[in-house]
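Handout, section 4.2: multi-component inputs.
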Amino acid sequence: MTMTNESVKQALRDLFPDPVPVVDEPASEDAEEKEETRTNGVLERDHAAYGYDIDVQLDPGELLAAVMIVDKAGFFLESITGVDWIKNDQLEAVYDFSRYDFDTCRIVIRTRTPRSTPKIPTISKVYPGAGWHERETHDFFGIKFDGHPHLVPLLLPEDADFHPLLKDFKP
Amino acid sequence: MSGPIHIQPGETFTLNVGPQHPATHGVLRVKMEMDGEYIVKAETVLGYIHRMHELMGENRTYPQVLPNLSRLDYLGALGYTHGHVLVIERAAGIEVPERAEYIRAITVELNRIASHLFWFGAFVMDLGGFTPLMYAIEDREYILDILEAVTGSRLTYCYYRFGGLYNDVDDDFISATRAFIPRMRKQLKKYDALVTGNIIFRKRLDGIGIIPAEMCRKYGATGPVSRGAGIDFDVRKNEPYSVYSEFDFDTPVYHECDSLARYKVRMDEMEQSLRIIEQGLDKLPDGPIMPKKKPKLIKPPKGDYYQAVETARGSFGIRLVSDGSKNAYRFKLRSPTYSNMSLFDEACEGMLIMDALAMMGSLDLVIPEIDR
Amino acid sequence: MSLTIFNALVAVVAAIAFAALNAAYLVWAERRGAGRIQRRPGPNVNGPLGLLQPPADGLKLMAKQLTIPGGADKALFVVAPVLAMVPAIMSFVTIPFSDTIVAHSMNIGVLMLFAFASLGGLAILFAGWGSRNKYGVMASVRAVSQSISYEIPMLITVITIVMITGTMNLKDMVAAQAGGFWNWNFFPSFSSPLMPISFLLFFVCTLAETNRAPFDLGEAESELVAGFHTEYGSMGFGLFFMGEYANIVIGTSLMTILFLGGWNCPFGLYPGVWWFLIKVYLLIFSFIWIRWTFPRTTIYGLLNLSWKILIPISLFNLLLTAGLLKVF
Amino acid sequence: MGTYFSDIIRGLWSLLIGLSITFKEFFKPVVTVPYPFKTIKMTERYRGHVELIENDEGKPKCVACGMCQRACPSGCISLASKSVSYEVEVKGEMKTKKKKVLTKYDLDFTTCSLCGQCVESCNFQALTFSKEYNLASSRKEDFHFDLLNRLKERNS
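Output:
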């Protein structure tokens, strides 16, 4: 990992007041429990096994700070999506960032929000391209992106009031 | 609805470009706020051909999703299926025989040329020249014939399997592909003379439709769009997957940021793809095309996996969240044109409609791939 | 008296028939030519070589209903296609095909042709405005600015020719070019050294005046759907289509008369209508050839071409010729 | 001023090059196939809709295991079978055995995506791709293929 990416990682770590010890690469078996109860923090992942390098989980409140760090380091926004963890009664928003140069480094930022009141601040002020991705995530999961200028259905019909990728969605 | 339109000076009007419009090449709609021929504001409306492939990916077993990926992008289908099999192989830890990877690379590059050829024709047609499309289709037919003889279909291929390929290539494929390379080089020269050098064509693209590098980064544009803005980014080079690290090829980069730069990137990419095919055919090893040990039922261990590949349109990514069952828990498709198109709204402000539509053509849109 | 009326009727009918036949079969020629250029056969199913395709197309168009969009200006909407076709046919009256084959030779033939040609722009304006379609309005505005800016260099070039030949009668103009091809206006002489450039200029202007590619901004199908005839179906569209081809025939005939010696043989042998037709159809072929080779220009590129290149050159040519005519 | 004229000349020259290319193409032979009058033979591996394969007796090889039905992503295959008892000579003795016999094999071609998962999943090599490609109809029912019937028609 090059200098830039090290500094990004350090900056992201500094976001967490109580630095959590870096968890070792979780084995695939006991990852099951860990995934459910994972604490916020920065994880380093094996690119060959997972396809990304840095895995950050944080509270929605810290999202903007983290995204600004990533933006300052010159990352581009790959995509935004959601995952419905219905067993934990949580919705997860996943932000993918990557670099244009040869210091290949993919950063994944995750944040979780309760299923009943899914609310996450928008990052479209930092990355205007997030506008569409957030609208899409709102379409599919119903996550409200606070401060989004135009949060209307993009891929679903204008009058859609359903969120098809929720695990309890019945067509 | 009575009487003709009355437009006061300085008043803007709304123009619906699409969903049925010749320039959008599909069911894309752009709501344009127009001041005469100038665009004041544009808003892209998507979803006319949305099919929810991501939900299908969750409902079906892993092998059943295979045909879906080729329906994303009907012009460069193999690139997308390549990404799909790669992410499942990464997740489930399946080893791929070398021969299979080489054949994958060769066929993906052939498909990339076919896709770029069709884009070339359609782009010149956007500018009003119809004949290059026919020439491009003629060459593309040649590729489709080669691919049809191997894969069994012409457009929506379902050729790659988890761990390898559906069936092996034969000598006919190799000889036909070898014959294709010099022919394509000759044709590229012809296109250069017929289109690239043409004064009318250059006047319409040179310095028009500027998409600067910073805008690319903010919107996540990849592929020829970002390479036309001077960004040296190609997943095949930056994050080598499959056997691309074995090949010697260049990433064409132009710094002009205009429509002509994006055009040139794609035309140069065809040449680079030819080089990859050439090397691939030379290096093609013997051996099996499917691994000896392959799990009967594919059940990737629990986890979150990501794989990016360079398709004809840019960086295509798949995020697979597996819960260890035979279906995916989450199957996110990051389509390149989605990000490339999202910057159109901002980039086209203040442009003439005909320049804006030329710029839209230079983004190489495939609507089913945006809408998924 | 009755004989003159009869003669006039025959002439008009012949002109209409010639215009209609040409329009119909130029569509066929265009499609066949495009096909050959694009390595495909073109229409070849109906009749030998697809020669029955134009009547079939005509029948199909006539069998369709002419829909008038709600809120359209009905009068303008209906008048426009007629206005596109009628001046085109009328122009044939004054074109001399040979020494004897001319419906009505008049002393101000050139003037009349251009008067009718200007009406074509009006038809497009009516069509675009009357059909209450935003694309149509944009297209008609484009087409009108285009026809205005291209009539100027075209007329200036014609004035040069009029100065050289000293007449506005088309028949006399051809007579002035009799003899070998070196006598044609196309070839430079001491008094008019820039004539080939003039011809090129006139050729470009004719392309633009007839709304042909690469100057077909009025119907720019990739931006404006179909431009001014977006809302037209049935024979309304058919008339626009035929009017376009009739205009092409007029434009090329004019080029033949003004620059290429009309019905004169290049070597002074057997002058007659055949030479005229050969020249016209060769020019038409070049129109088709150009259309299927080039992409479309932009509207500002088109206006720049006219105001910054064509008009200065044609003006310069006019002045030069005027001066040289005085000298020689 | 110099660039003004050189631009015009260079522009004209580029146009002439374009014209010369299309002019050459004008005299080259046609490359298209006049489709309804002439057709191309489909390649060996062409993937049309599926078709049952017969055994030596002209009966379908299919044992009605239902693997293809389960493998199909769009659920367009439906089959039915019945148990038939038959007598077999084993070591000089006649024994009664039971086997499944295919009675119905319907393919709903309207939803089929021609992916070939059914052919791949078949463990008895009882399915193949047909080479038919010009399937067209204005009625939906025409695309509900009864493959068993098609097999019979092919044999008769």
